[in-house]
Amino acid sequence: MRFGVTLPNTGYGGAPATLIQLAVDAEEAGWDGVFFWDTPYAAAPDEPPMEFADAWVLLSGVALSTERVRLGTMLTPLAWHRPWLIARQAATIDRLSGGRLTLSVGLGAPDEQGPWFGGDEFDRRTRAAMLDEALAVLKGLWSGEPFAFDGEHFSTREVTFLPPPVQQPRIPIWVVGAWPRDPGMWPRRKSMRRAIRYDGLLPNVFGADGAMVFDATPDEALDDLRAMSEWVALERDGTESYDIVIERSLPDVDAAEVARWEEAGATWWLDDAWWEMYGAPDDPEPLRRRILRGPPR
């Protein structure tokens, strides 16, 4: 099991130097990964204003300030971006960090929330199609070979994208997958099949009512994880290493509890540290103390 911390680049996270220092603290405390939210979020009139920092600029700073820790977004709503811009930003940070970047992608904000700054509003089906096309563009550009693409949503004339990332055949990509608990819904696992074409799964679990499950007990979540892991191993035929990423709070979790999740198939545990940020949005010290305790090896 590897352990990562997702740093909230809002609130005090609007100060880039604070976030970069927290990332350095995480590396020194033995964490394996540091991740940032990737969103253009700005407060609406009915929300309290909060400062925000850009994930990609932060990743550049962390790449130069660390040597070992893995870096990434958590996550990039690829349908809201131009994929060739993400390809360039990601390849640059991958080279800047010596090949330490992971790109996490999903559909993006719920329909009623995005986009924040105007433009077209895309339903889930459209965003899924855009995600598939954008992923194809990333793969083609990162190959370093002549590449052209003509899709419904994205297109590029033939280009050769240089320099390619350090990591080949591509920067690792973790993809959100919707896991339905109800076996009757299993034929609809299109997003799961998308995820297993890449390098890792960020699972969202859905109940029989079609709603995302937020209140699962640890035992229920472990059962879901085992079922997903078995399905992934069967569908991928166990041929290559593959990450299954869980996001859960780590305080008071010991190594024995972590072992249960590892046995069930998790390879990465991202510490859900949002409560520290929301509990003290102007004070990074609670999160810093949590980071300095290190992960439960």
The share of residues in extended strands comes to 15-25%
Helix tally equals: 9
Helix content: 25-40%
Number of strands: 11
Shape: globular
Q: Give me the side-by-side strand order of the main sheet.
A: 1-2-3-5-8-9-10-11
H and E string: EHEHEEHEHEEEHEHEHEHH
Q: Which value, in Å, is the CA radius of gyration?
A: 19 Å
Give the averaged pLDDT, no decimals.
89
Give the termini separation. Answer: 9 Å
Question: How many strands, what sense, and barrel or not for the largest sheet?
Answer: 8 strands, parallel, barrel
Can you tell me the residue ranges where pLDDT is under 50 for at least 5 consecutive residues?
none
| Class by SSE composition | alpha/beta
Structure, explained:
With 297 residues, the chain is α/β, with parallel strands linked by helices. Helices cover 36% and strands 19% of the residues. The chain contains nine helices and eleven strands. It is globular and about 50 Å long. The chain starts with a strand and ends in a 5-residue tail after the last helix.
Fold blueprint:
Elements: E1 2-7, H1 16-28, E2 33-36, H2 55-65, E3 70-73, E4 76-77, H3 83-96, E5 101-106, H4 124-142, E6 147-150, E7 155-159, E8 173-180, H5 190-195, E9 200-206, H6 218-236, E10 243-248, H7 255-264, E11 268-271, H8 274-279, H9 285-292
Parallel strand pairs: 1-2, 1-11, 2-3, 3-5, 4-5, 5-8, 8-9, 9-10, 10-11
Antiparallel strand pairs: 6-7
Helix pairs in contact: 1-2, 1-9, 2-3, 3-4, 6-7
